[in-house]
Amino acid sequence: MLARSLTNGERQALTATSDQVFINCPFDADYWPVFDALVFTIYACGFRPRCALELDDGSEARIEKLYRIVGQCRYGIHDLSRTELDAESRLPRFNMPLELGIFLGAKRYGGAEQKLKRCLILDVERYRFQRFISDLAGMDIRDHGGDARRAVQCARDWIANVSRRKLPGHRLLLDRWDEFNRDLPEMKRLSGLAEERLPYADYEQLIVGWLTR
Questions:
Q1: What is the reported pLDDT for 12?
Q2: CA 156/CA 21 separation, integer angstroms
């Protein structure tokens, strides 16, 4: 039986997966600088970040949204740095390890396209994970120490390695990151956006507009 040719839409979908990077990380205020830096770095490297914040659809269960996004992304950046107990519940948050498990499961048990998945695992300390998720023993964990600039370097160097594309060096990316942040307040003002934390879609559009201007 002859295999049918891919449609244009299917070709575009397959091409898109190789440019999409799933970000699995905390979404608390203390982590925002690192998250913002990761989103900017991924776009500045010519890739598209994906995360749970990208679409607020009350008709779709969060876990189903995660399954869909993970399935569409060849690459993933997973930050396990939030292991502290919640001040009110006195329980840790397990969302990040769960989403990493979904990503690794898709790579292990998925089809040919899923087996091409590659991921970067981050933490505040390189070997700290051995004390709370020892099943990851033998995997290469990168540390950012909670520093957004260090996260830029980690993400850029990893993307360059797994994609084998020629990318701007991390020092140039940091210069661009600094320039973007200097321009951000004026961009917000001109766009009529509030000074407080921007919704993800607005922040994403500002980055893309700034990079392509």
A1: 46
A2: 12
